[in-house]
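Curious: can you check?
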Amino acid sequence: MELRVTESSETELSIEIAGEDHTFMNVLKGTLLEHDDVSAATYDVNPEQSGGQTEPILTVKTESGVDPLDALEEAAVDVREKAVAFRESFEAAA
């Protein structure tokens, strides 16, 4: 997975996540929105409206004093934990 920061400030981060699609981006966005310190999370994959961009760009806005990169890292850990829990439940049911 290739990541490229396109914009960054104290409370906002936009990052291009190469090779991903709606499946992963929706899960990551939803997990970010579960965190109280995240005020907004969205992504864009529409090249028509994005000046030809074809890779998804995730934008995270956080409350004052919260680094958006830290919030993204926490959400990524949460996604991994949910995936592991799902796999374990699935294997136990099989």
